Amino acid sequence: MTPPPEDPAADPAAETAANQRLDRWLWFARFFKSRTLAAKLVTSGKIRVNSERASKASRLVRAGDVLTFPLGPHIRVIKILAPGTRRGPASEAQLLYEDLSPPAPIAPAPGTGEREKGAGRPTKADRRQIDRLKRPQ
């Protein structure tokens, strides 16, 4: 039986533990509800790893890599801090990354009904239009 290598860099198991598939890491970090959804976004070419387009879900990522991808109406910029070991709770998933995204601009709530100064009271037609905008759909 051979003794284990003393240099961790020479151990192939340690190297694979430091690297992880991109789709799997995105799923562990809870950015997507399934690995299939994560893989679809990667294969569509919308995810960048260190400013390079990732086209395969099997692309290996490691701590220190920076991911850029659209998520909803925002662009997320994420720095990987650690590989995931399981898909745990959200509090555990947040320890896997650092969010470098710029803060989202605060948009006014739609249909607040603000009127111009000096516009006076709304007419009956204006009131109906305001009510239609404010009504939940």
Automatic annotation (TrEMBL):
Residues in RNA-binding S4 domain copies: 20-82
Pfam families named in the record: S4
PROSITE patterns, A to Z: S4
InterPro entries in the cross-refs: S4_RNA-bd, S4_RNA-bd_sf
Region described as Disordered: 92-137
Ranges of biased composition (kind: Basic and acidic residues): 113-137
SUPFAM superfamilies in UniProt: Alpha-L RNA-binding motif
Gene3D superfamilies in UniProt: RNA-binding S4 domain
Entry GO MF terms: RNA binding
Record's keyword annotation contains Transcription regulation: no
Keyword annotations from UniProtKB, A to Z: RNA-binding, Stress response
Protein name as catalogued: Heat shock protein 15
Organism: Tepidicaulis marinus
